[in-house]
Design brief:
alpha+beta, Alpha-Beta Plaits, five-stranded mixed beta sheet, 2 helices
């Protein structure tokens, strides 16, 4: 198979489900995550969980998803991230955009 621009395969799409622990609610974590994800062309969602964590689904190129997960470890200025759990997720769940809930 040729590897020129016309012959390149599109980047493989991956989905990861992340649970972020720390001071991550009430600090614009979901909105900031959505803005960062959109800038990286990542789809999915960020939702608050009743236990104080934030749940994130991130789907996109492996590089973009990895970059978003690295950002999740920092979060926005007012956040304090203690842990980010990350596991593969089923891409069928992914919305066409990145949403917050």
């Amino acid at each position: 198979m040729s590897r020129g621009a016309a012959g390149e395969r599109p980047a493989a799409r991956v989905c990861r489900r992340c649970r972020i622990t720390g001071r991550v609610q009430g600090v614009f974590f979901r909105a900031s995550t959505a803005a960062r994800a959109r800038a990286l062309n990542v789809t999915g969602w960020a939702k608050n969980l009743p236990d104080g964590r934030v749940d994130v689904l991130a789907c996109g190129s492996e590089e973009a998803v990895r970059s978003l997960i690295e950002w999740l470890w920092r979060g926005p200025g007012g956040a304090r991230v203690d842990n980010v759990e990350s596991a593969p997720a089923d891409e069928v769940q992914a919305p066409a955009d990145f949403t917050t809930g």
